[in-house]
What we know:
Layout (H helix, E strand, L loop, with lengths): L2 H23 L18 H29 L4 H23 L3 H19 L1 H4 L6
Helix pairs in contact: 1-2, 1-3, 2-3, 2-4, 3-4
Amino acid sequence: xxxxxxxxxxxxxxxxxxxxxxxxxxxxxxxxxxxxxxxxxxxxxxxxxxxxxxxxxxxxxxxxxxxxxxxxxxxxxxxxxxxxxxxxxxxxxxxxxxxxxxxxxxxxxxxxxxxxxxxxxxxxxxxxxxxx
Length: 132
C-alpha cells in the first residue's frame, strides 16, 4: 500500500475516534441502545465532537476518491503521498480546533484541507506540468 492509501485509512480512523473518544470518556452516560440520543450530545464538547465526526464523514469520500483517482491515473506518487499526509495533518488540526471551540481557525483549516483535496483530485489533469 502507498503512503497516501494509509492516509485514507488514517482519515477513516480519525473520524471514528473523534466520536468514540467522547463515548469512551462519558461511557457511564452513553446508552448504546440509543446511540443517537440527543440528550447525550447536550454537553458542548460532545456537540463539537459530534460535529467534527459528521464533518469527517462528509469529507472522507472526496479524499478517498481523489487519492485513488490520482493513483489510478499515474500521477506522481510522491506528490500524492505528500499531499495526503498534509491533508491528514490538517484534518487532525481541524478536529482539535473543533473540539477546542476555535471556529475561525477551524474554517481556515477546512478550507486548506479542501484545497489540498482539490489539488489531489486535479493532479491527473495537471500531471504533465508536474515533476515526475
